[in-house]
Design brief:
Length: about 200
């Protein structure tokens, strides 16, 4: 899995950047916030990434902060919200403000975000309110996990998604493993356990 990339910025547009790493130019789709925070062309930067696999298309998404990436993953786990809409949402509102609007159940503020209608806003609030309410400010749903386990959870989630399983179903399987106290050991072992849950 591609967890992060560090490279020189070859190009910046309103929707993506091209980073050179290892002699390869990678197109990385990003939020407006991340793109604006990135240094100028010719400078080096580090982005946390998420690789989205769809049919024969591989899209790489990059984020400046772990909070933005985790919020992005929460959003694409909701039915009807794909990576591009999730990027649009996070380009229109910061993760912290999104969290506050969801907890408050503020549908009007949510629909002010480009691309978000009333139905989508309500779906986001229903799906994420409990998670955001419970979540620690620094974890957004990983509050019960230490740093090592959080990384293992994320890596397993990325691997399952790459295998074609839906983000929501993969989350549910990993949550069961976490609750049973078995979210530990090698990544391969965790993936095998998750696959057992996904088969039912």
């Amino acid at each position: 899995m591609i967890d992060q990339i560090h490279g020189m910025i070859l190009k910046k547009t309103p929707n993506y950047a091209v980073l050179e790493t290892g002699g390869v130019g990678l197109k990385v789709l990003s939020t407006i916030n991340t793109l604006e925070a990135m240094p100028a062309k010719g400078k080096k930067t580090l982005l946390l990434t998420y690789l989205h696999v769809r049919d024969d298309v591989l899209d790489l998404y990059g984020f400046q902060t772990s909070r933005e990436r985790e919020t992005f993953l929460q959003l694409i786990g909701i039915s009807g919200i794909g990576p591009k809409l999730a990027l649009t949402i996070l380009s229109g509102i910061s993760p912290d403000k999104l969290r506050n609007r969801v907890i408050e159940g503020d549908v009007a503020a949510m629909t002010a975000i480009p691309g978000v209608g009333a139905k989508t806003a309500k779906r986001i609030i229903v799906e994420l309110k409990e998670k955001f309410t419970k979540a620690d400010n620094d974890s957004l749903g990983f509050e019960e996990l230490d740093q090592t386990v959080s990384g293992l959870y994320r890596d397993a989630l990325n691997a399952l998604t790459a295998l074609g399983y839906k983000h929501k179903h993969s989350n549910q399987a990993l949550d069961k493993i976490k609750q049973s106290g078995e979210l530990k050991g090698e990544l391969e072992s965790v993936i095998k356990k998750a696959l057992q849950h996904l088969m039912f």
